[in-house]
């Protein structure tokens, strides 16, 4: 026996029917906080800022970054 039931309702109605909490306010707060943090860190995504960070670590960090990129391209870690 196969039984198909189709229910036409909104997500809020489904949550209320199943007794689940409404997390809309919490979700809105979380999204706003993530946007605020991304805006605050946007400067670190600028190419000139990235280069300053990488070059400040010296040749060892640059070599490690090169190996990381090679591993990403080939799919195998380089020693």
Kindly name the structural category.
mainly alpha
Strand content: under 5%
Helix content: 55-70%
Summed up, the helix count is 4
| Radius of gyration from CA coordinates | 24 Å
Q: Whole-Å distance between the termini?
A: 60 Å
Describe this structure in words.
The protein is mainly alpha-helical and 79 residues long. The chain has one domain. Helix content is 65%, strand content 0%. The chain has 4 helices and no strands. The longest helix is centred in the middle third of the chain and has 17 residues. It starts with 10 loop residues before the first helix and ends in a 5-residue tail after the last helix.
What would the keywords be for this entry?
single chain, 79 residues, 4 helices
What is the structure about, briefly put?
With 79 residues, the chain is mostly helical. It contains four helices and no strands.
